[in-house]
Amino acid sequence: MALDQQLLDILACPDTHHAPLTYDAEAQTLTCTECRRVFEIRDDIPILLLDEARQPGSAEEQGQAR
Fold it and tell me: Name one Pfam family in it (predicted).
């Protein structure tokens, strides 16, 4: 299920810069446009916890890029 566009319009990175997020429907993730952290969407709920986010360039991220 896709996230509602109105929700996507108001979601922002929880870090201090509060940058907008880009939505990847296929991967079910939201990516910060500034810090590049990747937040998972589980059961149609965005998990916007900094401790749960994947860092850019992490082993998991590199495996997805191949």
Answer: Trm112p
